[in-house]
Amino acid sequence: MDFALTEEQQMLFDTARAFADKELMPHEDLLEETGELPPELDLEIRKKAMEIGLHACNFPTSMGGAGLDCVSFTLVEKAIGHVSLALAECIRRPNNILEACEGQQIERFRDPILRGEIRECVAMTEPDAGSDLKGMKTSARREGGDWVINGTKHFISNAQISSFVILFAATGEDVTPKGTRKRISCFLVDLDAPGVEVAPGYKHMGQRGYYNNIIRFDDVRVEDWQMVGGEGQGFEVVNTWLGPGRLTVAATCQARAERAFDVALDFAATREQFGQPIGKFQGISFPLADMATELRLGDLLLMNTAWRVDQGLPTMAEDCAMAKVYCSEMLARVVDQSIQTCGGMGVMADLPLERIYRDARVERIWEGTSEIQRHIISRQLLRPLGA
Ligand SMILES: Cc1cc2nc3c(=O)[nH]c(=O)nc-3n(C[C@H](O)[C@H](O)[C@H](O)COP(=O)(O)OP(=O)(O)OC[C@H]3O[C@@H](n4cnc5c(N)ncnc54)[C@H](O)[C@@H]3O)c2cc1C
Q: Whose CA is nearest to atom 17 of ligand 1?
């Protein structure tokens, strides 16, 4: 079994890593201090990313992207994932749902995104519908030839700096043998349309500069052509086009855990107590060995999952769930132990560990909580046995 990267893959990783270290990392302190991503910085990074072909690298070449396969794209995510998310997101990897755009949607929404002119956000979650998305209350009802949308979404990332939202809303109900089921549909909605309000979100413990917003829809009228996929096909759209979004979270977690570990390793080798480097004490060195082993496992799982996605195996959902749950929980363990290794300095902002620690917490929650990932994995194990 050959685990080596090809020359092109290694070059892609090195290029993306060098870009992140040079163009993103120097701005981390600014974001921590202000909690804001300056728009001119966002634009500057986006333009530079376009120059070296990283912008929209997850889209097919026929649409203006770099056409990366999942392994190569995961390498990019790993290469830029160690820096603050708000900065990494300036290298835009647009939502793959936009690949499903047709007709007017292409010119009006998809192409300006691929040209780097605007940003999009995605709105599924609601105050009363988080893990249970099928319980969403936001509705779109037929009126004339249009759809009229009402409801509230919350926790929506970066809505305040986006031009439109990929919105999921219930367009009706079906009676099935298992009870009533909502028909969920997907719409592209301008965020400056009459009746749309983008409000500030909650104060987050981490991820400074990565905004979360509340979006309210009050009789918002959209035309028929703004629906993506057919009516009631919202989850099919997600399943077909969103692909391994959870793998992106896993790659970010892997990259952050590696960064935290490197800080701890360096500290263990250079910090002296009792007349010798603290790394000579087993209380410090054995956890380093455990962390290194977990990092190796995480990387193997991550890259193997990306490879499995590229093979088109039918197990994508549970494969990606395994990578997400393992890498996000591994990050929590590694950054916690890295802080312990560094003692008091570990919790000071002079080292990046306290920020990585705060930023890490949400990784076990968004894109599906750890419990939901375990549900996906266990369901695939038990279902064939009739349980
Ligand atoms: C900073 C941030 C940004 C986000 N960005 C976006 C975004 O851009 N767009 C978007 O649509 N959403 C976004 N989300 C929403 C995110 O995906 C949800 O927070 C997540 O899916 C969990 O939903 P919830 O927070 O409502 O928790 P809940 O669903 O209320 O869950 C609460 C707890 O109950 C557990 N639980 C729920 N159901 C089960 C079950 N069946 N079995 C076992 N345990 C269960 C959960 O695992 C969790 O521990 C974001 C969230 C955050 C925090």
A: 366
Q: Based on the fold, state whether residues 221 and 264 are members of the same structural domain.
A: no
Asked if 186 and 237 touch (Cβ cutoff 8 Å), the reply is: yes
CA of 172 to the centre of ligand 1 (A): 24
Q: What tokens appear for 35 in the block?
A: 């909690």
Angle, vertex CA 6, rays to CA 308 and CA 17, nearest 5 = 90
Shared domain for 171 and 139, answered yes or no, is yes
CB atoms < 10 A from the CB of 263, how many? 20
Query: What residues make up the domain containing 287?
Result: 244-385
130 and 176 together in one domain: yes
**Dist. CA 45 → ligand 1 center (Å):** 30
> Residue 42's domain is classified under what CATH number?
1.10.540.10
- What number does the ligand 1 atom closest to the CA of 158 have? 8
Per-residue pLDDT of the chain (387 residues; tens, 9 = 90+): 889 999 999 999 999 999 999 999 999 999 999 999 999 999 999 999 999 999 999 999 999 999 999 999 999 999 999 999 999 999 999 999 999 999 999 999 999 999 999 999 999 999 999 999 999 999 999 999 999 999 999 999 999 999 999 999 999 999 999 899 999 999 999 999 999 999 999 999 999 999 999 999 999 999 999 999 999 999 999 988 777 788 999 999 999 999 999 999 999 999 999 999 999 999 999 999 999 999 999 999 999 999 999 999 999 999 999 999 999 999 999 999 999 999 999 999 999 999 999 999 999 999 999 999 999 999 999 999 999
Does 299 share its domain with 343? yes
Among protein residues, the one with the nearest Cα to ligand 1's atom 38 is 131
367 included as an active-site residue: yes
Query: What separation in Å is there between the alpha carbon of 373 and the centre of ligand 1?
Result: 11
User: Do 233 and 250 reside in the same domain of the chain?
Assistant: no
CA-wise closest residue to 214 among 160, 290, 261: 160
Does 232 share its domain with 282? no
Q: Is 304 domain-assigned?
A: yes
91: left (phi over 0), alpha (psi -120 to 50) or beta: beta
CATH assignment at residue 328:
1.20.140.10
Q: Residue with structure tokens 């499903």?
A: 100
Does residue 369 have its Cβ closer than 6 Å to ligand 1? yes
Pocket lining: 362 vs ligand 1, CB cutoff 6 Å = yes
212 C-alpha vs ligand 1 centroid, how far in Å?
13
98 found inside a domain = no
- As for how many domains the chain has, the answer is 3
Whether residue 278 has its Cβ less than 6 Å from ligand 1:
no
pTM of the model: 0.97
Q: How far apart are CA 136 and CA 325, in angstroms?
A: 25
| 158 ligand 1 Cβ < 6 A | no
